[in-house]
Amino acid sequence: MAVRVQTTDFDVAQEIAALRESNPRVGAVVTFIGTVRDVNADAQVLQMTLEHYPGMTEKALDAIVVQARQRFDIYDALVIHRVGELRPTDQIVLVAVTGAHRGAAFDACRFIIDYLKTEAPFWKKEQTPEGARWVDARTTDDEAVARWKTDTTT
Amino acid sequence: MNDTAIRHTLTVNVVYLARLREAFGSAGEPLQLATATATVNDVLTALASRGGAFATELAAGRAVRVAVNHTLVSREARVQQGDEVALLPPVTGG
């Protein structure tokens, strides 16, 4: 289990290889990769700055991964989140989960990214042709995480 | 009387993040409260009473969350001498 916050890019293949390394029980690997779009809320995005709260970020991500491991039958999970200056098409975040079977791995991956979006202290500031602006939180993110709080089937 | 045993004020280190840092023109500051015990709510009330951007951003109903020593807490949570009290606008990572 690991969480990392970094300015540099990550290599998905390399990260998955490290996560699966010498564990022949793994039968499923699920990944989510978030990337920078060139448009948001009807404006062109030229560049984005990702800010976080050092000290709290790692703690918040750790807590989310611990919860996922308690709730779902998975082997391991990795979260990498980039900060600093990013441009359209850049990778922002990686969530990778290994398990024996796909069901739990898919659920855990979605659980982690849904909680990350509402609990982890990251903020995006976009540069648009009209100037810089802080990105607004989405109510759809709150709805996504609320689903896990009412869903008692898993 | 040992004046370290009875404290009449409380100082916390307030941290302003992202949009709030820009709105307040500061990354944070020590904040002294004139009470021996205090809650998160007391910290927010003291800051909002300054008026200006503090009053606007910390008005009732504004979506500001608070972390004490790097853990999200409720408005009723107690703060202790030397605590780091961070004010977080709604998060937008991922």
Overview of this structure, please?
The complex is a heterodimer of chains A (154) and B (94). By secondary structure, chain A is α+β, with helices and mostly antiparallel strands. Chain A has one domain: Alpha-Beta Complex (Aldehyde Oxidoreductase, domain 3), CATH 3.90.1170. In chain A, 36% of the residues lie in helices and 34% in strands. Chain A has helices at residues 12-20, 56-71, 102-119, 139-150; strands at 2-6, 28-35, 39-40, 43-44, 47-52, 76-82, 84-86, 91-99, 122-128, 131-134. In chain A, the strands form 3 sheets. Chain A has a 4-stranded mixed sheet with strand order 1-6-8-2, sandwiched between helices. A 4-stranded antiparallel sheet of chain A has the order 7-5-9-10, with no helix packed on it. In chain A, strand 3 (39-40) and strand 4 form a beta hairpin. In chain A, helix 2 (56-71) packs antiparallel against helix 3 (102-119) and helix 3 crosses helix 4 (139-150). Chain A is globular. The mean pLDDT of chain A is 95. With 94 residues, chain B is an alpha+beta fold. Chain B contains 3 helices and 7 strands; from the N terminus they run E-H-E-E-H-H-E-E-E-E. A 5-stranded mixed sheet of chain B has the order 2-1-7-4-5. Chain B is globular, with a radius of gyration of 14 Å. Chain A binds chain B through residues 34, 50-53, 55-56, 59-60, 81, 92-93, 113, 116-125, 134-137, and chain B through 15, 17-19, 63, 67, 70-72, 86, 88-94.
Greatest chain-chain contact: A-B, 27 and 17 residues
Strand order of the largest sheet of chain B: 2-1-7-4-5
Radius of gyration of chain B: 14 Å
Low-confidence stretches of chain B: none
Globally, the shape of chain A reads globular
Structural class of chain B: alpha+beta
- Output the structural class of chain A: alpha+beta
The major sheet of chain A is characterized as:
4 strands, mixed
User: Which percent range describes the beta-strand content of chain A?
Assistant: 25-35%
Rg result of chain A: 16 Å
Q: Please give the number of β-strands of chain B.
A: 7
CATH class of chain B: Alpha Beta
Order of helices and strands of chain A: EHEEEEHEEEHEEH
- Main β-sheet description of chain B: 5 strands, mixed
Q: Report the end-to-end length of chain A measured between terminal Cα atoms.
A: 21 Å
Number of helices of chain A: 4
